[in-house]
Design a protein that fits this description.
Among the domains are: 3-64; 221-414, SH3 Domains (SH3 type barrels, Roll), CATH 2.30.30; 432-645 and 722-761, Glycosidases (TIM Barrel, Alpha-Beta Barrel), CATH 3.20.20. It is of the alpha/beta class and 762 residues long. Helix 11 packs parallel to helix 12 (552-569). The strands form six sheets. It has an eight-stranded parallel barrel with strand order 20-21-24-25-26-27-28-34, surrounded by five helices. A seven-stranded mixed sheet has the order 9-10-3-2-1-12-11.
Length: 762
């Protein structure tokens, strides 16, 4: 049988026979090679051994395959389908597996106990034996010297004792145990107490650090914003302002800007001509730089100190001089140099300090200390903040003290003897029904007779006669004595208008150039008053519409100075104003209300010729806002509301792409329609709608009758001003108890409008 057949067969006997023959062959080869040389024999022996190992390895492989087959057969036996016995290649059924056989062909016996060298089975383990071969006996109790086993230990018998004896015997032991327990408890309590005390100490230190009053004192120079020793800190009423003051020759001086913004805005500094002006009801006070002298109108006066000083571009005014014309009191202190100025008089909350305490920068014990107050000091209470009160000390410190540091809080009327100048006004004893008469040339003055014939109930007419010719303050006038006389005969007053546009100057910059010089203002006022007096005009109506923010302070000074001349000559002064908005606050309506006799609201031009979209020229809400905002600053009895006798016809066309590109980045780019407009009187506007065949509907948002139509690719829109829109505005005038109404412009109204106006002005 060759090697391949041996690998294929599964018969163990055949494999055993093959292994025997292989072993015999190996022995035979060893014997044959024994006569050869040692080297050859060694090499052949090595080869023979390798061959045997190979055969042995093959046998091992075959044995592993046999075990796998047996295991596979065992697993198969567990399945439900019974496997048939395996057959060999010749078709004979393979015999069942038998025990492995030894080299001599005999079955190997079952494993038995190991045997000793003499072939006998080793006996089970027994007790150890002694040297004489006898088994060692089990351990027994120790025996005494006489050989007897020692008996078990038994408790010794004690004598019987009584209960009292037992108690007496147990007491020392119990007392000792009790003492030991007490000692342990005391030690535990001591440790616990020490822990609690340690925690309390840490917590106390933390709380003390957090809540204990700070002793830090604030740098008072930093508190007042003082940067160098030449500065003087300034407190005005309840606010600390910039330290723009100084002590010079023993006198306190403050910068002009502080005077204007915090003390008295009526002081005016002319930086172009280096003079300080103050406007009284009928006089103007003038002070030159570096002088002790000043003038009140044409009267010369003098002080024993320099009134006005300059350092570089900074102007300082002596507080003593300001006090002459202003109801203020002040006190100067040192360390650091500071001045406490009181301007606000009347009822104030005051309190007394209970005991010496500190004033802190903020409301809290950790805030630094600003100053100290003494027991019984009186302080002004400014605010209450939880457990703190904000106070003002008599020496100009503002800070916080605890509520319980004060007592006897009460209201006190704080006053000072001072006579305020009275800026008188001319007040008519009737409701004013005024209209502007837009006169563009002298010839137009002759149209007055027809205009008055078409109107009813007018009390005042305002011809547009005066224009500012140039920035030097020269005047252009088309005033007419005949016009004035005819108006007077008709029972009307004439308030001539002066304008900074539509002739002569006409820009913001030109108005600034004119009004920022005292000499130019004076020139204009003198010429204006001269023309008014010459023609016999009753009043002046100022219509300056080119006032920028920079020009605001100069414009209101012009109104002050003009008011002086008007009072001196009994001329009515009225001033025209836009509807109040954030962008026109520079007109200073509040000061106008003091200086002028009447403040007029131009309640129109909501949408005007330069607007980027179409709309009403005077919607109801627009007019209402104008009245409500104005009477917050000006007494209602001085306010006249202006209404429009005109409207605008709007033409709208889509913008071309080229136009949109040109407007990119501008406000106009937000509007896709190009709009133009023309102003129309009431009757003309109605005619336009009729000619177009359009119908009107009420726009409830604006309160106007509205119409729209299209023609030749153009969209037309119009919001009419007529009796429907005018009456609600007249009702607002009456409800707010205004001085009257004014209309722009005479000749643009429809005839029925006068009867409507008369219902509200008579």
């Amino acid at each position: 049988m060759d090697e391949k057949e041996i690998k294929r067969t599964t018969d163990p006997r055949k494999k055993t026979e093959w292994a025997k023959s292989a072993s015999n062959l190996q022995n035979q080869r060893r014997q044959e090679s024994s006569g050869r040389t040692e080297t050859e024999g060694g090499a052949r022996g090595q080869a023979s051994r390798e061959n045997a190992e190979t055969l042995s390895g093959k046998a091992a492989v075959e044995d592993r395959e046999r075990r796998r087959a047996r295991n596979a057969g065992s697993s198969a036996g567990k399945s439900k389908v019974r496997k048939r016995p395996a057959v060999s290649e010749d078709g004979q059924e393979r015999p069942k597996k038998r025990r492995p056989i030894s080299e001599d062909g005999q079955e190997r016996p079952k494993k038995r106990r190991p045997v000793s060298e003499d072939g006998q089975e080793r006996p089970k383990k027994r007790r150890p034996v002694s040297e004489d071969g006898q088994e060692r006996p089990k351990k027994r109790r120790p025996v005494s010297e006489d050989g007897q086993e020692r008996p078990k230990k038994r408790p010794q018998k004690t004598e019987k004792v009584s209960k009292n004896q037992k108690k007496q015997a147990a007491r020392p032991a119990a007392r000792k145990a009790q003492t030991k327990r007490k000692r342990k408890r005391r030690v535990g309590l001591m440790i616990l107490l020490l822990i609690i005390l340690g925690i309390a100490a840490i917590a106390g230190a933390f709380l003390w650090k957090k809540y204990s009053p700070s002793k830090e004192r604030m740098d008072v120079k930093k508190y007042y914003g003082i940067e160098n020793d030449s500065q003087m800190a300034i407190t005005v009423d309840d606010q600390i302002v910039e330290p723009h003051g100084m002590i010079s020759d023993g006198k306190a001086y403050v910068q002009y800007e502080v005077v204007r913004d915090y003390i008295n805005s009526r002081f005016y500094w002319d930086a172009n001509e280096n003079k300080l002006l103050y406007t009284l009801p009928t006089d103007i006070v003038t002070v030159e730089i570096g002088s002790k002298d000043y003038s009140v109108s044409k009267e010369k006066k003098s002080e024993d100190y320099v009134i006005l000083k300059t350092e570089g571009n900074t102007t300082y005014v002596a507080l003593d001089f300001i006090q002459q014309y202003t109801n203020i009191d002040y006190e100067v202190y040192d360390s650091p140099n500071r001045v406490m100025i009181t301007c606000d008089w009347g009822k104030k909350q005051v309190a007394t300090v209970k005991s010496d305490t500190q004033v802190r920068y903020r409301g809290g014990v950790k805030s630094p200390i600003v100053t100290d107050v003494k027991k019984k000091d009186e302080v002004i209470v400014l605010e209450n903040e939880q457990n703190w009160k904000k106070i003002l000390t008599k020496d100009g410190y503002i800070g916080y003290v605890k509520k319980n540091a004060l007592k006897n809080e009460k209201t006190k009327n704080v006053t000072r003897d001072f006579t305020e100048p009275e800026y008188t006004s001319i007040k008519k004893d009737y409701t004013i029904n005024m209209a502007w008469h837009n006169v563009t040339n002298s010839t137009a003055n002759s149209g007055l007779q027809q205009r008055l014939a078409d109107s009813k109930g007018l009390t005042t007419i305002v011809p547009t006669w005066f224009h500012v010719k140039d920035t030097e303050g020269n005047l252009e006038s088309i005033a007419s004595t005949d016009y004035v006389n005819y108006a007077h005969q008709a029972g009307l007053e004439v308030w001539a208008a002066i304008r900074d546009f539509d002739g002569g100057i006409g820009s913001n910059d030109e108005s600034l150039q004119l009004l920022s010089y005292s000499s130019r203002r004076e020139n204009l006022i003198n010429q204006l008053i001269g023309a008014v007096m010459q023609v016999g005009i009753d009043g002046i109506n100022v219509d300056f519409e080119k006032i920028s923010k920079d020009c605001g302070v100069h414009y209101i000074q012009f109104i002050r100075e003009l008011s002086v001349k008007c009072r001196q000559n009994g001329i009515v002064l009225s001033v025209d104003n836009y509807v109040p908005k954030g962008y026109n606050q520079q007109y200073n309506r509040k000061e106008q209300g003091v200086m002028a006799d009447y403040v007029i609201i131009m309640g129109y031009d909501e949408h005007n010729g330069s607007s980027l979209e179409a709309g009403s020229v005077s919607s109801y809400e627009f007019v209402k806002e104008g009245i409500e905002e104005t009477i917050k600053e000006v007494p209602a009895e001085k306010v006249i509301n202006g209404i429009p006798f005109f409207t605008r016809l709007w033409l709208e066309t889509p913008k071309t792409q080229e136009e949109l590109n040109q407007e990119a980045g501008t406000e106009a780019a937000d509007y896709p329609m190009k709009v133009t407009s023309e102003a129309l009187g009431m009757s003309t506007a109605r005619d336009k709608i009729s000619q177009a065949g359009a119908e009107t509907t009420l726009d409830e948002t604006t309160g106007n009758n509205y119409a729209t139509w299209e023609a030749d690719g153009v969209t037309y829109e119009i919001w009419l001003e007529d009796a429907t829109s005018i009456e609600p505005k007249l009702q607002l005038m009456k409800e707010n108890k205004l001085a009257g109404t004014a209309a722009w412009a005479l000749g643009q109204e429809s005839s029925d409008i006068w009867d409507l106006i008369l219902k509200y002005v008579n």
